[in-house]
Write a structure and sequence with these properties.
Length: 361
């Protein structure tokens, strides 16, 4: 097997995947075994390992499509290696640490768990992507990456990991409050496919360390453009500055608070409403998937509405109950609630807000 020189130079001698040592012979064995497996997640892992160890400098990745049309981009393997090293340094991961991957390895989050294992010398266990990630094993782990949904369905099991990073979707206020009671170190991540995983993290748990502020890792620095959106310079993981549509409140050149997406801002009666902030407040009232959107209003221009993936019968008097709450401003409070049997989702399971709203409006 002809290995990429850069990848080979950064292949840690203690790296293991499913207990198989990741030397040249071990990698060939893993690729052969996974390729012949009937499990789709193992076949996808084999495909990635073939691409990772091939002589090419770049890899093709697909964005999730959460905030727009999914697209194919190319990233340098060098940047993925740097990202793994930065995460390892920030979280103080050690060679030999046990890690768990229950994320799809055809998207960046799953791919980076593989790269972290190979570069940092972790002992990685792969299991099928699942909403209940700890159900497949009784083992404890030093490091796990999860989506918020996976974490929410595993609250009673999260103590089995020493360090957890969460990404891929917003974390509700209700969930954050529950996570703070867990002794595990839990971090929310900020990043995107273009930054080969995250470039900033913020602590959620334990409670004493909780913060709403993200801190950048490595040499990354941040500032705002004229619209208040985040601009990132992360030379270790990206070729150029990245201009986002994320509206933030800066706390210096290396820290920021995320407010919401510029694309989603609702101007209601001249007041800017950040849907993500309202959703954070709403989370304790709604057990199904939901999001805040807008519809035309003759007086306000646009008014706030709430879309719920569920049955109206399950939420009797919800609007009246919300109107009694003091946590919402009069502009934030949904003026109407709509129920849909199913939301439109991206391939990676994230809500397509605009596509879903078009079904209704």
């Amino acid at each position: 097997m002809e290995m990429d020189t850069l990848v080979k130079d950064h292949l840690h001698s203690q790296a293991k995947i499913n207990a198989t040592p990741c030397d040249e012979m071990g990698i060939e064995q893993l690729i052969a075994t996974f390729s012949e497996s009937e499990e789709a997640y193992l076949q996808k892992t084999a495909k990635f390992l073939i691409e990772w160890f091939s002589p090419q400098e770049f890899l093709s990745l697909h964005t999730s499509g959460t905030t727009g049309t999914p697209k194919q981009i190319t990233v340098r393997k060098e940047h993925m290696i740097h990202s793994a090293m930065l995460t390892g340094a920030f979280l103080q991961l050690q060679a030999g640490d046990r890690a768990l991957c229950v994320l799809p390895t055809d998207y960046i989050a799953g791919k980076m768990m593989l790269v972290r294992a190979l570069v940092l010398g972790l002992s990685l266990e792969l299991f099928p992507p699942s909403g209940t990630p700890f159900a497949a094993t009784s083992d404890n782990f030093d490091f796990v990456a999860l989506t918020p949904m996976q974490a929410m369905k595993s609250l009673g099991e999260l103590h089995r990991a020493k360090k957890i990073i969460l990404g891929g979707a917003p974390i509700s206020a209700a969930m954050e409050a529950q996570l703070q009671e867990i002794p595990t170190e839990i971090y929310a991540t900020y990043g995107m496919t273009e930054t080969v995983s995250h470039i900033a993290l913020r602590p959620i748990a334990p409670k004493a360390r909780h913060s709403r502020i993200y801190t950048t890792i490595g040499k990354s620095r941040v500032w705002q453009d004229s619209k208040g959106c985040l601009v990132i310079d992360c030379p270790e993981v990206a070729e150029e500055e990245i201009h986002t549509h994320d509206v933030v409140r800066l706390h210096g050149a290396h820290a920021f608070e995320w407010l919401g997406r510029l694309d989603n801002i609702i101007n209601s009666g001249g007041v800017k409403i950040y849907p993500e902030g309202v959703e954070h407040k709403l989370a304790s009232f709604i057990s199904d998937r939901f999001f805040i959107w807008k519809e035309a209003d003759t007086l306000l221009g646009d008014r706030v509405i709430l879309l719920i993936e569920g049955r109206e019968a399950d939420y009797p008097h919800l609007l009246e109950n919300l109107q009694k709450e003091t946590i919402f401003s009069k502009y934030e409070l949904p003026k109407k609630i709509y129920f849909l049997p199913h939301f439109q989702l991206t391939e990676s399971g994230k809500i397509q807000r605009e596509g879903t709203a078009k079904l209704l409006l």
